[in-house]
Amino acid sequence: MNKVLSINRFTGIETRSSIGTSEHPLVNNAAPPSIADLHATFMSDGVPLAVEAARKALAEARLDASQITHVVSTTCTDSANPGFDHYVAKELGVSPSVEKVLLHGVGCAGGLATLRIAANLALGHKFRHQPARILCVALEVSTTLVRSELESIDQTQETRIGACLFSDCASAVVLSNGVGEATVEPVYELLGWDHRTIPDTEGDLGFDVDPLGWKVVLSPRVPKLTEQVLEPAFADLIACTEHHLPETYRTAPDFDWAMHPGGLTILTNAERTLKISSEHMRASYHRYMEHGNSSSATIFSVMDHLRSKEMDSFAPGGRAKDYVVGCAFGPGITVEMCMLKRNMGARGVQTPPETDSEASRSERGDEDDRDWASVDGEKQTPAHVPIKQNRNEASSSTDEEGFVAEALANVELD
Q: Which of 76, 108, 169, 338 is labelled catalytic?
């Protein structure tokens, strides 16, 4: 226990978001909470966070819930049937006919996994000449698991660091394929993605079910394993998206990076391997220090924070990059990576008004520049990054490869 407490002081995390305080009954009872107790709190405290995140995503995308065609969601801190996405959709007033997908078992990679699944759904709808407005939702309530982790540490005398890293968060984005009525200018354009699994690493990173909740599996090999896969994954991502990129964007330092902050070593190893600086991953570091690791919900929060004026001031050379690489690692070990183009002038890319004139314009409704990518537990920070995909519809190819190439040329994130 003393070793874990020592590690806790050197994680680099200053504060962590939570649905409750350190006085919450679930973490102070004599016995750890049961799965039923954890599920009840997830539903009573977590689901409202996800609903708030989704509403703010819809507001920034200027969409009504009735326009949503799909909901793709993820969590690794609850398991029930129906899933939490059912209750989020019901509270939002989404049509009962809307297609829903709930991802499980993908852990910290879940945010980018929902984006990948949503993009493929959007491409399918574009091929059929149908509009797609896809709501992606990630919700994690991790802090209620602390009591169970501490119980395991006491009983096994093992060094378990899950209790030192994880926090609570809900985040949401909206992805559109551009078919049908025009929506707002996107915040990001999704140009492509890469997904892979590192062979024979199932026992290195995971989240195992236990009678007292879920227990973090995190072997000492994880930083090295993730470090080794970064360069080949990035090379393949460049290979499939380079026709969308200017010649000046080819190497890792040419891009900003939205890296999932799984831990401080993950970030510092990425710096060394990719030959980038902490400024390239400024939003990842900042979110990690101020909120901790919120598993699947973190990456959208990082993407949102990266678009802020505050983060632009810390960019390498004082200038934010036009292109961003998103990256996250999950159980398996799986690697999710994507290429994004920032629309620097899009509504929502600039953050809250810095002058009285900007504030007046926002109040009149001319533009809405609030920084709304995630809802972090008690922080109640707005929560969403609307995603818009494929706006150019001048022609439709009947050839499948031609269609995909044309479609991916316009995948955008509002």
A: 108
What is the bridge-based pairing of β-strands 374-375 and 99-103? unpaired
Look at the block and give the residue holding tokens 């609570």. 168
Round to whole Å and give the CA distance between 301 and 376: 9
Q: Residue 181 burial (CB < 10 Å; 0-12/13-18/19+)? A: exposed
Q: What span, in angstroms and rounded, lies between the C-alpha atoms of 166 and 50?
A: 17
Q: What is the dihedral of CA 240, 134, 258, 312, to 10 degrees?
A: 110
**Neighbour-count burial for 65-100, b at 16+ CB within 10 Å, e otherwise:** bebbbbbbbbbbbbbeeebbbbbbbebbebeeebeb
Tokens (6 digits) for 403: 């269609």
**Tokens at 309, concatenated:** 């004026």
Element at 224 (helix H, strand E): helix 222-241
Q: Which of 71, 49, 277 is nearest to 174 (CA)?
A: 71
Please state, in angstroms and rounded to a whole number, the distance separating the CA atoms of residues 26 and 331.
26
Going residue by residue through the chain, which has 414 residues, state the pLDDT in tens, using 9 for 90 and above: 666 566 666 677 788 888 887 788 877 888 888 889 999 999 999 999 999 999 999 999 999 999 999 999 999 999 999 999 999 999 999 999 999 999 999 999 999 999 999 999 999 999 999 999 999 999 999 888 877 777 666 676 766 666 667 889 999 999 999 888 877 888 999 999 999 999 999 999 888 887 777 778 888 898 889 989 999 999 999 999 999 999 999 999 999 999 999 888 899 999 999 999 999 999 999 999 998 889 999 999 999 999 988 898 899 988 999 999 999 999 989 999 999 999 876 534 332 223 233 222 223 334 333 333 345 554 433 333 444 333 332 223 334 444 344 444 444 455
Question: Does the annotation count 108 as an active-site position?
Answer: yes
Task: Please give the structure tokens belonging to residue 147.
Answer: 């009591």
DSSP track, 272-291 = HHHT--TTTTHHHHHHHHHH
φ and ψ of 250, to 5 deg:
-140, -35
| Residue 100, helix vs strand vs coil | strand
DSSP at 164: H
Distance CA 331, CA 202 (A): 7
In angstroms, how far is the first alpha carbon of the chain from the final one? 45
